[in-house]
Amino acid sequence: MLLASCAGLNGFACKKPGQAEQRASGSSAGSNAITIGHYASMTGATAHFGQDTDKAARLAIEQLNAQGGVLGKQLELVTLDTRGDSAEAANAVTRLIDVEKVHAIIGEVASSLSLAGGRIAQRRSIPMVSPSSTNPKVTEVGDYIFRVCYIDPFQGKVMATFARDNLKFGKVALLKDVKNDYSIGLADSFRSAFEAAGGQIVVEQSYSAGDTDFSAQLTAIKGSGAQAIYVPGYYSEVGAIARTAERLGLKVPLMGGDGWDAPDLFKIGGSALNGSYFSNHFATDTATPRAQRFVADFKAKFGQEPTGLAALGYDAVLVLADAMKRAGSTDPRALRDALAATKNFEAVTGSITIDKDRNPQKSSVVLEIEDGKAKFVALVAP
Amino acid sequence: MSLSQLLQQILNGLSLGSIYALIALGYTMVYGILKLINFAHGEVFMVGAYAGYFAALGLGVDQAASGGGFPLHLAALALALAMGSAALLGMAIEYLAYRPVRNAPRLTPLITAIGVSLFLQNAALLAFSPNPRPYPPILRELRYEVGGVIVTNVKLAIFAVAIALMLLLRWFVQSTWTGKAMRAVATNVDAARLMGIDVNRIIRVTFAVGSALAAAGGILFGLDQIMINPSMGVLTGLKAFVAAVLGGIGNIQGAVVGGLLIGLAEQLTAGYISPDYRDAITFLILILILMLRPQGLFGLVRPEKV
User: A-side interface with B, Cβ within 8 Å?
Assistant: First the structure.
């Protein structure tokens, strides 16, 4: 059974640092455990996304089980690695449904991967909750797909408003990842909101996930007179982009979204990121009592501060467990209807009410980076 | 588009091109002698980058970085260690994978090479994890501005190391006994053997030298591009291969010129047309050269084979 939870053909996919395998031996559908599947990038260029989310999800499940579980049964989490690859994401979801017989699925962080996995979950009618995929298309896949975070049109607008009103910038350059639905979506919503507010996008440049050289794009941006660069990408590339910009003597702040939210951002980008801003779901330094309790529990268990993505991973499990309690069963259709009826659920990242498009309405924080730490600077309501 | 911007793009293109050139040399040298496209060469480049990474960490680059910076002699030692490990790896690949099939039909070694490449890639995924790693600060970054163009000491180091290694290679091939023997083997293996040249040894040396150059390319790549990962050798290796074909495979000067041209073409395409065509341009060049001048730029006069 242990081996059954390894995705892919490669041995390394089985590595799950710091995780206890919580599988009861011989468990399957109909036994006394409720199985929740989690597909996540446990390795690869976005490994932090998966690992942080998985840690928090396991913390949530541990706490729920300590309180007696859900519907009188213990919860069990089975995690499969996607390596940040959409084909692997689709494989993982198929495997969770066919082999692991899960009752519900959590995942992914990356929108492109949630789209790939969500299509399978929808076709097989298994409810899926994405903790932190912000591209609107994710929940448009169908009525079994939910999320517990805000969506890109709002997130792009948050940074556009902040750049225009708080930072008083008039000229901004865009640098987006053309292989990434999330990045394209954020760039689009930023552009329209920034231009509507009277700002100007002076130059648009792009890269592809996996690129290592950004000097051509940044050299072009340098000559454009931009006061800031909006880079709605993922942390690995953003860190390298910040370092390259510094090398080219490009001294303007970078701005981005929740894809920046990983400790490795600071490890790669270092001091080149000072004075940069990004929007996020959660700030550890301005949290509610509910959130403070989560921060304390997370720190006690893992010895590190939770990221915003971790907080959403925690919330995804809580929302799912709440829906199971209200549905009174793990029947996929009943669970779907209960998820859709989620109202004023007090979660770590704020109050969650699922709207008719299966998205919650939530506010966003803006963080500023200073010496390897992200500090709260503003709260933007929807 | 200002002039300083153009110069900046050219400078960045040449530094990337120097790295391609260092890798292309390995392809061209092996081809010159064995008529084999060593598709595992991109992976040797990747392993070289990791060897440099671990050597630098082992020599205390992290502690040194918070102090006054990594001493230059330790940086040189890390480079030498990486080149040495890659040379050993190159010789091992030759001995274990290519020697047994050396006299088989030409397709067999080619497929073996692809197999070795896949094996090394996956072994690296297993050993190093697929997570990208930021390259350690082997050089403390300094920036100079010359007429609006930013020159970093990293770029200068790339040029210095690349040029020094290429001159060293030229001296080695032209003036040493082993170099002469390499050229003899490239010209005619049987005749060389009849003249008392140990062909196996020469092939071994060729792999060692080519692999060491690729490892140097790997370290420079890590410094320049900030991050390394186990699949970095795939695309970079292919581009360096195109550089070798562009220059005329088997031709040393051709590999250097080809590398620089590919680096420039890539950077200027990314800067002035669209970054989306950055990789496409390299392969467009490959198609054009194969259609219009399959022997490569330097293929008209009888190439100096190595």
Answer: 10-12, 15, 43-45, 47, 83, 178, 205-208, 210-213, 215-217, 219-220, 222-223, 236, 239-240, 243-244, 247-249, 267-268
